[in-house]
Amino acid sequence: MKSKLVLGVAALLCVSVAAHADTVILSTNDASVVSELGKAGQGWWSLDTPNILTNTNYITGTSANVSPGVDFSYRSFFTFDLSNPALQARTITGAELKLQAFTGTGYNDGGLI
């Protein structure tokens, strides 16, 4: 559904034509992104833990004490299709990234994170 922000991510690009600015909404769940990647164009990547290609969750920062004395660092990524026809022959003058904030808990080594 284009009207919903699947997984809460969208980019708003302000484009200008002459003195008029329009807003174009791009999503990481646009069909062109999903067909290219096989999933929504978002997720996390880490050198410290195996990456799951189908995972669309995002996390950025360091998770301290994943195991005693072990910290994992995570980086998020978001992919948008800038070849979208709505952007053709237009100049991008600004962008806004909107993310949904999630909270959660889990267990690792029997302890609550």
Q: Rg, please? A: 18 Å
Helix content: under 10%
Total helix count? 1
How many extended strands?
Answer: 8
* Approximate strand percentage: 35-45%
> Could you list the spans in which at least 5 consecutive residues all have pLDDT below 50?
1-9, 109-113
Strands in their spatial order, largest beta sheet: 2-1-6
- Quaternary state reads single chain
The first-to-last residue Cα distance is: 33 Å
- Series of secondary-structure elements, N-terminal to C-terminal: EEHEEEEEE
How many structural domains in the coordinates?
A: 1
Described by the principal axes of the CA atoms, the overall outline is elongated
Overall mean pLDDT score? Answer: 75
> The biggest beta sheet, please?
3 strands, antiparallel
The structure class reads mainly beta
Q: Would you mind describing this structure in some detail?
A:
- The chain is mainly β and 113 residues long.
- The chain has one domain.
- The chain is 6% helix and 44% strand.
- It contains one helix and eight strands.
- The strands form three sheets. Strands 2-1-6 form a three-stranded antiparallel beta sheet, with no helix packed on it.
- The longest helix has 7 residues.
- It is elongated.
Could you name the key traits of this structure?
mainly beta, disordered N terminus, three-stranded antiparallel β-sheet, 6% helix
Task: Indicate the topology.
Blueprint: E1 9-17, E2 20-27, H1 31-37, E3 42-45, E4 61-67, E5 70-78, E6 91-99, E7 107-108, E8 111-112
Antiparallel strand pairs: 1-2, 1-6, 3-5, 4-5, 7-8
